[in-house]
Amino acid sequence: MSDLITADLVDLDLPAGDKREVVRSLAERLVKAGRVTDLEQFLADIEAREAQMPTGLDGGIGIPHCRSTAVTEPTLGFGRSSAGVDFGAEDGKPADLVFLIAAPEGGGSDHMTVLAALARRLVRKSFTGELRSVTDPAAAAGFIAKEVSA
């Protein structure tokens, strides 16, 4: 199994747009990395999950996620948006940090473990502060991987 997140799954300058455009941009990275086999199916699964409940968290965080038959292995993509993206957070703040969690259909609880580990880190200002200031995708991937697996 590959690393959960790698530099090629990180975009520190997401294009401005709505959440669909931002999710598509990150999802295309997952396709290029061979972790998603069918972009449109994956996006439909993300959209279905978003329709159940918004994935925005207070403090400028978006965590779109889903299980999908198009996902080959548990994967985490990360993007930073200078414009901010509305993921429906209760505080109304647009997300500048976006984590795309992709899990294979029937892949057990892997994505929930990642989601829980990420949620524990997101309440720490030092974690989000580091992600808001990091300038290198490899450094961002390494930092996230270390924190989420700790």
TrEMBL record:
Keyword Hydrolase among record annotations: no
InterPro entries: PTrfase/Anion_transptr (IPR016152), PTS_EIIA_type-2_dom (IPR002178), PTS_IIA_fruc (IPR004715), PTS_SugarTrans_NitroReg (IPR051541)
Repeat as UniProt keyword: no
Transmembrane segments: none
Taxonomy, superkingdom: Bacteria
Keywords: Phosphoprotein, Phosphotransferase system, Sugar transport, Transferase, Transport
Every PTS EIIA type-2 domain range: 4-145
The EC number(s) this enzyme carries: 2.7.1.202
GO molecular function: transferase activity
Name of the protein in its database record: Fructose PTS transporter subunit IIA
Upper classification of the organism: Bacteria, Bacillati, Actinomycetota, Actinomycetes, Pseudonocardiales
